[in-house]
Amino acid sequence: MSNCKRNLSPNIQNLKSLESKYQSIIKQATEARENAYCPYSNFKVGSAVLCADGSVTAGCNIENSAFPVGICAERCAYSKAISQGKRQFEAVAVVASQKDHFTMPCGACRQFMSEFGNVDVFISRPGHEDVLVTNLNEILPFQFQTTDKTFE
C-alpha cells in the first residue's frame, strides 16, 4: 500500500471576491444550517445547490438514532431539487463549522452528486470570510459511473 498523499492546491478566496450568485448560495447554505437536526453529533451542516435554471434549493443534515439512515445536507439539498424535476446543476455550497478545517462533502455525497455531473463546490464556515473553491471532479476524481443510462 502506498503512503502517497495527493496534494490539492487549495483555492481559498474571500467571499466578497466571488460572483454574487455564489455568495448567495453560500448564504442560503448558512441559513439552512440553522435548521439542522443533529441531536447526536451537534454538528450542523447546511448546503445549497444552484440549479442550471438559476433556482436554488437548500438543505441541512438530518440525523437519526439509527445512524445510517440520516441524511447529509448536500444530499438533502439535491434531493429536494431533484424531487422538483431539476436534473442539471451548476454549483453547490457547503457550510459547517470546524475551527481549522473546511468541511468537505463525505464520500457518499460526492458520489451522489456526481450522478448529475461536475459542479463547482464552495466550502465555507458560518463567518464566510474564507471560501474554499473547487469542483466535484477535483474532490472525487474517480467517481463510479455506468455507461448504461437506459434507466433514465
Protein topology:
Elements: E1 12-14, H1 20-33, E2 45-51, E3 56-60, H2 73-83, E4 89-96, H3 107-114, E5 120-124, E6 130-135, H4 136-139
Q: How far apart are the termini? A: 39 Å
By CATH, the architecture is named: 3-Layer(aba) Sandwich
Which consecutive residue ranges, at least 5 long each, have pLDDT under 50? 1-6
The structural class is: alpha+beta
- Order of SSEs: EHEEHEHEEH
Number of helices: 4
Shape: globular
Largest sheet: 6 strands, mixed
Total domains:
1
Fraction of residues in helix: 10-25%
**Widest beta sheet: strand line-up:** 1-6-5-4-2-3
Q: Give the rounded overall mean pLDDT.
A: 90
CATH homologous superfamily (4th level) name:
Cytidine Deaminase, domain 2
Radius of gyration: 15 Å
By CATH reckoning, the class would read Alpha Beta
Beta content:
15-25%
Q: Report the count of strand segments.
A: 6
Family: Belongs to the cytidine and deoxycytidylate deaminase family.
GO molecular function, one term: cytidine deaminase activity
Active site: 74
Domain CMP/dCMP-type deaminase: 20-147
Summarize the structure in words.
With 152 residues, the protein is α+β, with helices and mostly antiparallel strands. The protein has one domain (20-139): 3-Layer(aba) Sandwich (Cytidine Deaminase, domain 2), CATH 3.40.140. 24% of the residues lie in helices and 22% in strands. The protein has a six-stranded mixed sheet with strand order 1-6-5-4-2-3. The radius of gyration is 15 Å and the shape is globular. It is an enzyme of class 3 (hydrolase). Residues 20-147 form the CMP/dCMP-type deaminase domain. This enzyme scavenges exogenous and endogenous cytidine and 2'-deoxycytidine for UMP synthesis. Zn(2+) binds at residues 72, 106, 109.
